TrEMBL record, chains A, B:
This is 5'-nucleotidase SurE. Residues 7-193 form the Survival protein SurE-like phosphatase/nucleotidase domain. It comes from Gaetbulibacter aquiaggeris. Its main location: cytoplasm. Belongs to the SurE nucleotidase family.
Amino acid sequence: MAKKPLILVTNDDGINAPGLRTLIEVLNTIGDIVVVAPDSPQSGMGHAITLDSTLYVERVIVDNEKQEEYSCSGTPADCVKLGIREVLERKPDLCVSGINHGSNSSINVIYSGTMSAAIEAGIEGIPAIGFSLLNYKWNADFSAAKRYVKTISEMVLKHGLPNGIVLNVNIPDISEKNIKGIKICRQAKANWVEEFDKRKNPQGKDYYWLTGKFVNLDNGEDTDEWALENGYVSVVPVQFDLTAHHYIQNLNSWNLNG
Amino acid sequence: MAKKPLILVTNDDGINAPGLRTLIEVLNTIGDIVVVAPDSPQSGMGHAITLDSTLYVERVIVDNEKQEEYSCSGTPADCVKLGIREVLERKPDLCVSGINHGSNSSINVIYSGTMSAAIEAGIEGIPAIGFSLLNYKWNADFSAAKRYVKTISEMVLKHGLPNGIVLNVNIPDISEKNIKGIKICRQAKANWVEEFDKRKNPQGKDYYWLTGKFVNLDNGEDTDEWALENGYVSVVPVQFDLTAHHYIQNLNSWNLNG
């Protein structure tokens, strides 16, 4: 019998999040899994890493202990770094992050702790996927996501991913029978228009809550936003070479040395 | 006389950092500047934003007050969001972040608070630049950087930048006379090999410090690492559409719906 793949599992909503529990349930059917996840919610952490502070990682028993689990005081990217170097005995065959409670489509990929964990694994040369469900609630229904987590994870194990690319998978918040399938997409050009909620604290000092409205200005039918709005699971190949290669020639024409 | 450009200035080392003070000194010669910077160091914060906590921003007087300055309790990305929506009276003509104490070349762009501030401004449609000096020390010598901050900032004001692109500028830690000029580059394929420093706290519990060794596996002479090692200031056009467009066709061949 072929050896089971070793899968590192993490997230950004914290080790007790229902989205992570769903991921564990599915991945237990296809590999040996080890969980290294933040001990508290880390949404919006982007690709933060812990440089000025100590990191703790400890074995925990969360559910039926089919899998090893470790709780980490750091960010999602820290969890992956620690998981690879200090927890796992060999390089994992796959790293899966999520299932995030809330969308990481389009520009959200930039702010996403879920995706930063996947990207960190990608930087380490490990095939990696981030899964997110378009429902921010703690008690969101993850059942429709299971089938897609399984299919896409198995496909990545089968095909591998080239160095420098990880997958960003978003799942619409509709019932399984209404999901039309999977679409390979590009990241839509969208952004948040912030609306700061300004208040006074009990001492009379102004403070703000960051809130905002999501604005999609991209009408392309090849985007993740289009796919999700139309009942598809979106899969975007994401790279961490941020170079805008097509603009290098233009910049050269500025004669910055002139 | 033409109206002076309005420049939003921020960083990730905090409002008192010498690198920021150098940036302010130079930018005061080319525009009207407003500073909104973190009240404490935020290195390695990546593109973190503050979702679960309150944000404070208050007017401070740091030096001779040629410029308005605001200290913010949030991350570099928060500073830009708050600066644009709550502090500035109009959309700035340019956003400049830095000068970072330490490199943000190659893969460091991913972890960089300095660059996340520039990218956040880019998302808002504002031409933006992040500057970094390859010296992590607080008392680093920023004098050689001044000329390049001025030249590149003026060029961006003159030419603008297309939507979706910001500049990542790194400056070698050598004297001005030894800098050979500016090179437009791509991000080198490099990464950190983590070496966790494991210790026991006074209560006997294990903890870690994240340390690591930077490894550049990219021999290209068109990379930022090559430019910096050879005495050039590196300028990389950075995009925040992370889609690996060239890989979409390949993923389609997986027949994920099949």
